[in-house]
Design brief:
Elements: H1 3-40, H2 45-62, H3 66-142, E1 146-150, E2 156-159, H4 161-167, H5 185-197, E3 207-214, E4 220-231, E5 237-246, H6 248-289, H7 293-304, E6 311-318, E7 322-330, H8 333-340, E8 347-348, H9 354-361, E9 365-367, H10 380-386, E10 391-399, E11 402-411, H11 419-486, H12 488-491, H13 494-524, E12 533-536, H14 537-554, E13 558-562, E14 569-572, H15 574-590, E15 597-604, E16 608-615, H16 649-659, E17 663-667, E18 675-682, E19 708-712, H17 716-728, E20 732-736, H18 739-749, E21 753-757, H19 765-774, E22 783-787, H20 792-801, E23 805-808, H21 813-833
Parallel strand pairs: 13-15, 19-20, 19-21, 21-22, 22-23
Antiparallel strand pairs: 1-2, 1-5, 3-4, 4-5, 6-7, 6-11, 7-8, 9-10, 10-11, 12-14, 15-16, 16-18, 17-18
Bound molecules: adenosine-5'-diphosphate (ADP).
Residues 583, 587-588, 591, 615, 617-618, 620, 628, 634-636, 642, 645-651, 675 line the site of adenosine-5'-diphosphate.
């Protein structure tokens, strides 16, 4: 028993005793109080019952008698009941409270359920929120671009990973760091200005700026910063949200794109330039294709459309600044015809007109408004405007300040022509000017060339006539000189024989000059045909050496000959090669003083034969070594100082050698050092042999002793001399002095051979031969023509007319005699065969 319950038990006993003692209501009241105190002390009814029974026993012991005991028991029961009434009341209160609690509990349970439900919802909402937050955080963190949240002074509050990576900062280390710190120094001021202006900007819109950022790692890169101002509920700027992008790649792409753009533009420009060049090249080749300016310019106009213009008109400048409309071109041929119908007489260009101005400036001019037509300005301008042309370009063709023409370009779109067109048409005009100038120069040159050709022809004709006229009188001079030389009266008279010799030598000199002139004319006109045969060059050289040995020895010159041991076979014209050799040898004799020597050497290698003529003569200055092969050029300026000759021999020799496919040149160590002349000729192939080249009479043909020869020549001297020579050979010579009487004599006498001049009075040689060939008895008689012209065309004409041979005057008698023999022999063979 606790102190409290013992105390309550004590008080209960005392109260019970008091009640039993008759304490009445007050005592009962104490029982009631005790009951309350017991509840307060936490005692239960059973403990109260235990206390009561203990106190009842005590009371019972003090009571005497049964009755009294019953009364005590009864009254004690009242007292006990009274002490329990607080318990009952408390119980009742408990019961009520319990009921209330139960009801409250229900409510609480309902509330709890509701709370639980709300909690569930809240939890779900929270979880969704958390997921969303995490998603946004992830987005924030894993976004490829850098995101920053800063205060208005760019002090970083939040940064995503990309921003940290960009700025080279460790995770979470950017908080509190000002963004400005990462801007390169040179841009910090600009950044600060930008920053200070941001709060005033539009909150809804971000602002962009390119800045160079230097990361913590020291890397500098271009960055694009986009920033948006965040405002609070009151609309006041509260912070900044930044998007930071590394612009390196963008910039690279941008640069790449710019490069591509540039490249594309360059390619476009190149394509345009190539097109331009192709156009200009085409124009140039058009201009170069013909020297007929007008047709060329018309072709240019046609090429210009539509590349440069819808319309192109061409004018040419006539003398006295008259311009003539040459024609127009349009893509549509119908339109072109329309324009070409405008062709009119040349008009005078008015000094104040636009065209005159353009000619004067020498530069193209643009016209972008309807032109007012002035006097002297061609009507086609108006025509073009009426055709809808809105841009005109006048392009003058000017050279050395002289206007040659005008190109008018017309385009339908307004303001079509730009500066680059000006450059192109300027070039075009320059090319046209050049072509026109060339054409003008060419026609001037052609006129000059024609004049020169005429002069050359006249010179050739003059030389031909001169040599002809020189040779004719020479024939009797030479003939008589030769005859006189043999005449005993002359032979025995030293003065007369020296005089006759001089006569003959000089006549021969003049003959040589005349022959050279004629030869040159014939060679320069390519009228010489080589009669090639296989021959031994050694023999040709020997022939010349032997022919001139006497001349050399007369001058006191020593001739040394060293010829190639075997035959040197070339395919050549014997007479012409002889001519070359003779010329070289004669020159060596001529230009070597008495006492000197001349060495002639021949040699050969696998391809070529060479003849070398070396003298110890006057030599040749180096500057003349080549010149002496030009016609009329000599080895010295001193014409008079040099020995005779026109300076034609070497020119002729070179031409002859070249016609044989060879070469000829001179060598000399200088004046007074002697000269060497070399001739090289290709060797004939081995399949030829000199035997193939036999041009002598067929074997067994004896010379025909006595022939009846009719000689027809109007030059009595020539006829007489030739007649004497022929008679000396035993022939019977009949003569006639013109074609007509010659024909009559021929019909009458029927000679074995007829020799006739070509140029004769009454009937020339051509008519004569036609007549002779028409008479059956004379048709096969050999007829030899003698011509003083010696031109190839004369010989060809004579042969074509029916002559059997044609010889140049003055003919070497031996040559004439050989031809007579040959023709007569052929006729004998022919007659004997029939
Ligand atoms: P020509 O002898 O009739 O004047 P060529 O044409 O034969 O004409 O010669 C041209 C020039 O070459 C001669 O005038 C002479 O000056 C020079 N010449 C030719 N052969 C010799 C030579 N063997 N030695 C020195 N000069 C020479």
């Amino acid at each position: 028993m606790t102190d409290c319950s013992a105390e309550i038990a004590q008080q209960y006993l005392s109260g019970l005793q008091d009640y039993l003692a008759g304490g009445g209501e007050a005592a009962l009241q104490s029982a009631y109080e005790l009951g309350r105190r017991a509840i307060g002390a936490g005692l239960g009814t059973l403990q109260m019952l235990a206390i009561h029974q203990q106190c009842l026993l005590t009371a019972m012991r003090e009571t005497v008698g049964a009755r009294a005991s019953v009364d005590v028991a009864d009254r004690s029961a009242n007292f006990f009941a009274e002490s329990l009434s607080p318990f009952e009341m408390a119980l009742r209160g408990f019961s009520e409270a319990n009921a209330q609690l139960s009801s409250n509990l229900e409510d609480l349970r309902a509330a709890e359920d509701s709370l639980l439900h709300q909690h569930g919802e809240l939890l779900a909402a929270h979880q969704a929120l958390e997921a969303e937050r995490r998603r946004y955080r992830d987005l924030f963190d894993f976004a490829p671009d850098g995101y920053l949240v800063t205060d208005l002074h760019s002090c970083i509050e939040e940064a995503n990973r990309a921003a940290e990576a960009l700025l080279g900062a460790a995770s979470g280390s950017l908080a509190g760091v000002p963004l400005r710190q990462f801007v390169v120094e040179s841009m910090q001021e600009a950044f600060a200005d930008w920053l200070s202006g941001l709060p005033d900007g539009d909150a809804g819109r971000s602002q962009d700026r390119q800045l160079d950022i230097r990361s913590n790692a020291g890397l500098t890169f271009p960055a694009t910063l986009s920033v948006r101002v965040v405002r609070d509920k009151a609309g006041l700027p509260a912070g900044l949200r930044w998007l930071v992008r590394d612009a390196t790649e963008g910039k690279r792409i941008e640069e790449h794109r710019a490069q591509l753009l540039v490249r594309e533009q360059v390619a476009l420009a190149q394509a345009a330039a190539a097109q331009c060049l192709a156009f200009l090249a085409e124009i140039s080749s058009l201009l170069a294709s013909s020297l007929d300016c007008e047709s060329t310019l018309a072709a240019v106009a046609r090429r210009i459309v539509p590349y440069l213009a819808d319309w192109c008109f061409i004018y040419v400048v006539e003398p006295d600044l008259m311009i003539r409309f040459l024609g127009g071109a349009h893509q549509d041929p119908g339109q072109t015809d329309l324009a070409n119908a405008l062709r009119s007489e040349p008009v005078c260009v008015d000094a104040g007109s636009r065209i005159a101005r353009v000619f004067h400036a020498g530069r193209p001019e643009l016209i972008s408004e309807a032109p007012e037509i002035r006097a002297g300005e061609a009507a086609p301008f108006r025509f073009l405007w009426d055709q809808g042309v809105q841009s005109l370009l006048l392009v003058p063709i000017v050279t050395h300040g002289q206007a040659l023409g005008l190109v008018v370009l017309g385009a339908t779109p307004a303001h079509h022509y730009q500066d680059d067109h000006l450059v192109l048409v300027d070039d075009l005009a320059r090319r046209c000017a050049l072509a026109l100038e060339n054409a003008q120069l060419y026609s001037a040159m052609a006129a000059e060339r024609d004049k020169a050709a005429d002069a050359n022809r006249a010179k050739d004709e003059f030389l031909g006539i001169l040599s002809h006229e020189l040779r004719n009188p020479l024939v009797p001079v030479l003939g008589w000189a030769r005859k006189l030389r043999k005449n005993p009266g002359v032979v025995n008279d030293s003065v007369l024989s020296a005089g006759v010799e001089t006569l003959e030598r000089n006549a021969l000199n003049i003959l040589r000059l005349a022959n050279d002139c004629l030869d040159l004319v014939r060679i320069s006109k390519s009228k010489v045909t080589l009669e090639k045969q296989v021959l031994d060059l050694n023999q040709t050289a020997l022939g010349s050496i032997e022919a001139l040995r006497q001349t050399a020895s007369e001058k006191g010159l020593r001739l040394e000959t060293r010829l190639w041991p075997s035959t040197v076979t070339v395919l050549g014209d014997r007479t012409r090669l002889n001519q070359v050799m003779n010329n070289l040898l004669l020159n060596a004799i001529k230009y070597t003083d008495s006492g000197g020597s001349i060495a002639i050497r021949s040699s050969a290698n696998v391809r070529e034969a060479e003849i070398e003529i070396k003298d110890t003569g006057i030599g040749i200055a180096p500057e003349y070594l080549e010149q002496i092969f030009q016609p009329f050029r000599r080895g010295s300026k001193e014409w008079l100082a040099s020995d005779g000759g026109l300076g034609l021999g070497l020119a002729i020799a070179r031409r002859i050698v070249e016609m044989h496919g060879g070469g000829i040149w001179a060598e000399s160590a200088g004046v007074g050092q002697g000269s060497i002349f070399r001739v090289r000729l290709p060797l004939a192939s081995a399949r030829f042999s000199t035997r193939d080249a036999d041009d002598t009479l067929p074997a067994g043909q004896a010379s025909i002793a006595s022939l009846r020869i009719l000689l027809i020549d109007d030059q009595k001297d020539v006829a007489e001399l030739t007649s004497m020579d022929l008679q000396a050979l035993g022939h019977i010579v009949l003569t006639a002095t013109d074609g007509q009487s010659g024909l009559e004599t021929a019909i009458r006498e029927i000679p074995d051979v007829i020799i006739s001049d070509l140029k004769m009075p009454r009937m020339d040689g051509y008519e004569l031969i036609r007549n002779l060939r028409g008479i059956s008895r004379l048709a096969s008689v050999p007829v030899i023509a003698l011509t003083g012209f010696g031109m190839k065309k004369d010989i060809e004409a004579a042969m074509a007319a029916g002559y059997d041979a044609c010889l140049n005057k003055p003919v070497e008698f031996s040559e004439l005699s050989a031809v007579i023999q040959k023709l007569a022999a052929q006729r004998v063979i022919l007659i004997s065969k029939h």
